[in-house]
Design goal:
about 400 residues; alpha/beta; TIM Barrel; 2 domains; eight-stranded parallel β-barrel; three-stranded antiparallel β-sheet; 16 helices; about 15% strand
């Protein structure tokens, strides 16, 4: 497939690992990889103005096909000039396909995605999933919707993101291998339908990623990597269940990466922990996305490096804790964000206790800045073939 407005060039390869530096060109600008993609799920990065997101060093953001199709609807977004103009974002953008929400709806966790927590009494709203697509009830107004590969491509075309993704079913970890295999094969057929629909309307403004499924099973991952390698997708996205533990996830990602076409950009869907990013980078992952940095900010969490305070082994400080009540130091003296350069942990603790919204905004910007600094340090580490020392400075 000819993609004159897109290309991906590997500019440096590590001598010690599979880590690499790249430059991903899109109609809305270039992305230096490895890079982190921040989630603007409903057309906004929660707790942050889009201008501040950009000025914090963000290269690319992600929006969610499922949520945008329900509110405000793709037709209105298209009428408003597409998501870039609608949001006031002039950089590269990715949209997912709605496939993850099929998984969430089917297993009762969509409310967790919507509300930003793990506990909910919401019932699953998936009504039916078959070869044609997924039928479900809107969590907003109860209306019935049917999402097919063709419809997913149409919605993403109207939203206007640079990078878009085929529709797939994301199977959970606990299902049997037989179901995982059948689901993977159906996802492959959906991907071919997505590809056909994409090519039918291709105007050079978007590039399509294929998704690798297969759960935790190496033989199924081999089938799925062969499938995406053999079809003209611009990039790859590693999806599906990656295991019940960190170690298993790293093994599944490593197995998958070893079989993928190394010339194409690779995105790891929904993964954004600091250790996970370092592991993925050493396997050759180019981009990551996750709601984690902005979600923990809304619960009083500030991402920090080792030596920036007692985190009890976590990657963040919980500034709601009483021990910060009289702490007049910043979160991180080396961080250039507004929170770190102007106010103390004690003041943030006060704002959180007083339920002032500015606290969540300040912590969100800090965490966005932190992730952008982290990925910049990782790129320097790859460039200097010294990634391990970077890991020691950033990873608990």
């Amino acid at each position: 497939m000819q993609q004159p407005n897109f290309d991906f060039n590997i500019t440096h390869r590590s001598k010690k690992t599979k880590a690499r530096l790249g430059r991903l060109r899109t109609p809305h600008g270039e992305i230096e990889t490895p890079s982190f993609i921040f989630c603007a799920t409903k057309g906004a990065v929660k707790g942050a103005h889009i201008k501040d997101v950009k000025e914090s060093g963000t290269q690319i953001i992600l929006s969610n096909t499922y949520h945008m199709m329900l509110q405000p609807g793709p037709d209105l977004v298209e009428k408003m000039g597409g998501l870039h103009k609608f949001m006031g974002w002039d950089g590269p953008m990715l949209t997912d396909s709605g496939g993850y929400q099929i998984f969430s709806l089917g297993h009762g966790s969509v409310a967790s995605e919507i509300k930003g927590n793990r506990k909910s009494s919401y019932k699953p709203t998936l009504l039916k999933i078959n070869e044609e697509g997924a039928k479900f009830k809107s969590y907003i107004d109860g209306k019935i919707h049917f999402l097919t590969p063709e419809r997913s491509m149409e919605i993403q075309r109207k939203l206007g993101a640079d990078l878009i993704v085929v529709l797939d079913e994301c199977t959970p970890f606990h299902v049997e291998k037989e179901y995982t295999a059948k689901s993977m094969e159906m996802s492959h057929r959906w991907a071919l339908r997505s590809l056909k629909e994409f090519e039918r309307h291709d105007d050079g403004k978007q590039a399509l990623y294929g998704i690798i499924q297969g759960g935790v099973y190496p033989d199924l991952r081999k089938v799925s990597t062969d499938f995406v390698n053999d079809n003209p997708f611009f990039g790859h996205a590693v999806g599906g269940s990656l295991g019940a533990s960190k170690d298993q996830m790293y093994d599944v990602v490593g197995t998958t990466m070893a079989m993928l076409d190394p010339k194409r950009p690779v995105h790891l869907l929904g993964i954004g922990g600091i250790k996970d990013i370092f592991s993925g980078v050493t396997q050759g992952i180019d981009t990551f996305d996750c709601v984690h940095p902005t979600r923990i900010a809304r619960h009083g969490g500030a991402l920090v490096r080792p030596g920036q305070g007692d985190t009890n082994g976590r990657e963040h400080l919980n500034l709601r804790n009483v021990r910060f009540k009289e702490d007049d130091s910043p979160i991180d003296e080396s961080c250039p964000c507004q929170a770190c350069t102007t106010i103390s942990k004690a003041y943030l603790h006060h704002l959180l206790k007083a339920k002032e919204m500015i606290a969540l905004q300040l912590l969100t910007l800090h965490n966005i800045t932190f992730m952008n600094r982290l990925l910049s340090a990782i790129r320097d580490g790859i460039r200097n073939d010294d990634l391990e020392s970077v890991k020691k400075k950033w990873c608990f």
